[in-house]
Request: fold
Amino acid sequence: MLRLWIMGLALLGVPVMAVTQLPGNAQCPVNCSCFFSQWFVQCANASLVSRPLGIPSATVELDLQHNQFSTLSAGFFPELPEVSTISLGSCGIRQVEPGAFIGVKNLFHLHLENNLLEQLPEGIFENLTNLIFLHLEHNQIANLLPGTFSSLKQLSVLDLSNNLLLELSDQALQGLPLLRRLYLSGNRISNMSSKALPGNLRALRLDWNQLVSVPAAVRASPMLATLQLSGNPIRKLTSLSFGRRLRSLSQLYLDSLALEQVTALAFTRLRRLELLSLRNNSLESLPSLSSLKSLSRLYLTGNRWRCDCSLIWLRTWQKRVLRKERSPVMCSSPQALQGRLLVNLELQKLTCPPYGMDSTTLSLPENTNTPMATAPSRDKPLARISTTAATTTSAALITTRSSASSTTFHHHVLERWDPCLADHISRVSIRTKGATSLVVSWSFSGDHDQFEVRYTAGRDEQVLRVMGRLAEVTLHDLRPGTEYRVCVIPQNENLLECQIPGTGQCSAEHTASLPSSAQPVHNQLGHSHSAVGIGVAAALLTLVALALVVTYRLRTRPIQFQRYYDEDGSLPHRRSSNRAKLPMHSVDQDMEDEHRQSHMTAASHCPEKVNCTVSTPPRSTSTPTYIAL
Reply:
């Protein structure tokens, strides 16, 4: 009857103290509490200086934290075959001897955090082959001996944060095939071996260390999904910072790095990135992240943003995401926009040079022989030139993309509105200026300060972004003798949706051919050269007659290989001589055509049921640069 009463109290959660009878006539240790229903023995804050006596062999969880065990000697724990969790946090432990855990072979969780451990002797975890969680955070561990954890074949989580580690060798974490989470926050790590990390890591915390760059061991972790690097003195991120093997990375934290520069290709290989945090750095600008199709959360607060044309993509991106997921981007410069949120700014104020710059520091050159010096035609008069730099200076950002994708969204263009703003553009005219240049001018209605000029030749499309209410631009470095189709689109919030501009905002024109000195001569003979012409004609007639005689004699002979030309009923296979008559500029085009033909040939030999569609690679785009017009 007494035993049933005790079990009832335990089921209700009432602690049964030291005199409680446990199965097998075992008693709860002195100064401990035993919860019968959970097989939980709690001896926390009991002022113990040695192991409590009489721990039941059926114990599953043993809580010994907040006591005073300076040393865990060999055989510290008795035979506890059922125990799965032991908590020894905040016990002032300075030393753990090998064999201390010899009696707890089925341990899953071991807590040794908030102690005074300076080293981990070899063999102290030797028999813990089932251990899954090991907590060693907030100790004074300065180095890890090779093979310290090699017996922990099932270990999944290892927490070594807030210790005194200076480096991580390639042997420090060997023998951990199932390690998934590694926490190294708050150490002093400045150097890591390229082979220091296990290959199956999913989450890695290296924040608040002394790393000046992303370690090579991190870049070689293909299964890594979460990476925390905040608080390290990393000032610049380039295309080499993350490499090409981080194919699974979805969350990247780069807060408080004193980061000053991010190059255009820094994140382009992180195709699965969903969260990027760049808070509390020293960034003034950020290259476009449009290649990160999975990106949905971008945290950018606490930087010194310069709101100019380089952040147009960011404003457009923020307009698309939900308000609750939008990280506020506040302008620090120029002074005219200081303190304003980027997402609330009008597009015409995001200019290069920045809107509101003092006109005394920036003005047009006195020499007006440049292509952009001529006054463009406008439907509306310009403001006075001395008002702001935005009306006196224009800048352009040139990018290149394949026009093959321009028809991808042809059937998705909404009928309710026109993202190309075709009604705002009229009288697009083009005039030839030499063999490699075209001058494009247009008229516009509305208060537009920025335009996107798209010009296409064949499969290649290039984009020129014009700032500063200019309505004329010169396109340079074009191919001679080539027809270009040019479209002008006003900058607007929905510009990314403009795939098929209206016919009224487009026009076409050829560039001039190469000079006559670079082309074959086809002029008729003049009177002064008639004698020479007659002689040449006679010589040609003689050669033709001779050729006819030779051909007749050859055809009357039974030549065996004559059937080579029409053996399969196909057209004769002859070399064309037209290539010699092409201008010199066609060599590059021929190489492109040959490259494109190689893709077609590869696709034609593709096995069935396999998608071998190969698109012609677009021209590589270098880092965008702004060009004063």
Remarks:
- Confidence is low (pLDDT under 50) at residues 1-25, 358-415, 519-532, 556-629.
